[in-house]
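Re: that backbone. C-alpha cells:
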C-alpha cells in the first residue's frame, strides 16, 4: 500500500470532516464511491449539507464541479449538450453540457421527466454521451451524486428500477446530533468573521486526479479471502430467495439484488478496508457497507408495505441470518 496515496486521501478526508460537521457517514461514502468508481444516490431533508459535501469534495481535488437543479421542464440537451448550428459556414458544432464535468450534482433528480433521467442513465452506465450518430467520451474521473427529497413527493417522477441499479450506493442522510449542531453554528460564525465571502474555501493543494486513479488500482491488491467472496455472494443470493433463512422474509421480498450488487459490494468493501488503513478485507467491511449497496436493489412485496416493513429491516435480518465466515 503506497504511503503517498494514503497520506493524500487521509488529508482529503480530514479536510472534508473539518468543513462538513455531523455527516461523517456521508463523507466516508463519498470517498468510497470515488475510490470504487461509482455513483451515489442520496436521500435526505433539505439543508443537510448534501450539496456542500460534493462541492467541498470537488474543491479538494483537481476536478471541476457542476450542479444541475432538476425540474419538470428540463430537457435531455440541458444535461448532455447539443449540436449548435453555425450560420456563417453552415456547419454544426457540439456544445458540451454539464455532464462533461468530473463531479456532477443532480439535485432532486426525481423531479425531472423520464427522458432526462434516461439521458443521464447513458452517461452513468456507458461513460459517454451520444448526439445523433456521434458518441463523446466523458472524463476519466466522473461521478454523479443525485439527491432526492423524501418530504415532497407531489409532481415527482420516481426513478425506475433499472436506473436505481446503476447507482453504486443509496445513502439516507439524517439530522446531525445536538453537539454537531452546536459545532456547525460555531464553524459558520468563525468563517463569517475570519474570511470575506470572496475567499476560496478549498484546500491549499488540491489532490491530482492521478492519485485517485492510483488508489483505485491499489484496491485490487487488497487480500480478499475466498470465504469472504462466498459470503458476499450468499448475501446477494439471500436477497433474491430469503425463504431458507426465514419464511417471513420470503413473504416480504418481491425482487432481489442484481449481479451489480455483488460487484458493487466487493468494490465498496475493498474501498472501506483501504480507507481504514488495512491491506485485507474483513467481514466488518462488508457488513458496514452492505445496507447502502443493497437498499435500492431490493423490492418489497405488498405484504411488507402493508405491515410497514422497510427495506433496511429486511437487509438487517439477512445480515443477521447469513453465516459469517
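Recovered sequence:
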Amino acid at each position: 500500500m503506497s504511503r503517498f496515496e494514503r497520506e493524500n486521501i487521509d488529508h482529503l478526508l480530514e479536510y472534508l470532516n473539518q468543513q462538513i460537521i455531523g455527516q461523517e457517514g456521508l463523507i466516508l461514502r463519498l470517498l468510497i464511491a470515488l475510490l470504487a468508481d461509482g455513483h451515489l444516490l442520496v436521500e435526505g431533508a433539505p439543508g443537510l449539507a448534501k450539496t456542500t459535501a460534493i462541492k467541498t469534495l470537488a474543491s479538494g481535488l483537481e476536478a471541476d464541479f457542476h450542479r444541475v437543479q432538476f425540474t419538470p421542464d428540463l430537457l435531455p440537451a440541458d444535461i448532455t449538450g447539443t449540436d449548435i448550428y453555425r450560420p456563417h459556414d453552415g456547419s454544426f458544432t457540439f456544445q458540451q453540457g454539464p455532464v462533461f464535468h468530473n463531479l456532477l450534482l443532480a439535485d432532486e433528480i426525481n423531479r425531472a421527466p423520464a427522458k432526462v433521467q434516461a439521458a443521464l442513465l447513458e452517461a452513468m452506465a456507458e461513460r459517454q454521451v451520444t448526439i445523433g450518430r456521434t458518441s463523446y467520451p466523458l472524463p476519466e474521473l466522473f461521478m454523479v451524486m443525485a439527491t432526492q427529497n423524501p418530504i415532497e413527493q407531489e409532481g415527482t417522477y420516481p426513478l425506475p428500477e433499472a436506473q436505481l441499479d446503476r447507482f453504486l450506493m443509496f445513502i439516507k442522510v439524517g439530522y446531525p446530533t445536538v453537539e454537531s449542531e452546536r459545532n456547525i453554528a460555531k464553524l459558520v460564525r468563525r468563517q463569517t468573521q475570519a474570511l470575506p465571502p470572496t475567499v476560496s474555501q478549498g484546500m491549499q493543494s488540491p489532490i491530482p486526479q492521478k492519485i485517485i486513479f492510483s488508489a483505485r488500482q491499489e484496491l485490487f491488491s487488497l487480500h480478499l479471502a475466498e470465504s469472504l467472496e462466498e459470503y458476499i455472494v450468499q448475501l446477494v443470493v439471500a436477497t433474491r430467495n430469503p425463504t431458507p433463512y426465514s419464511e417471513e422474509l420470503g413473504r416480504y421480498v418481491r425482487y432481489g439484488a442484481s449481479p451489480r450488487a455483488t460487484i458493487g459490494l466487493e468494490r465498496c468493501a475493498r474501498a472501506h478496508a483501504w480507507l481504514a488503513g488495512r491491506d485485507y478485507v474483513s467481514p466488518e467491511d462488508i457488513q458496514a457497507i452492505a445496507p447502502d449497496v443493497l437498499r435500492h436493489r431490493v423490492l418489497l412485496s405488498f405484504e411488507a408495505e402493508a405491515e410497514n416493513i422497510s427495506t433496511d429491516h429486511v437487509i438487517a435480518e439477512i445480515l443477521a441470518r447469513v453465516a459469517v465466515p
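The longest strand covers residues 81-86. The mean pLDDT is 89.
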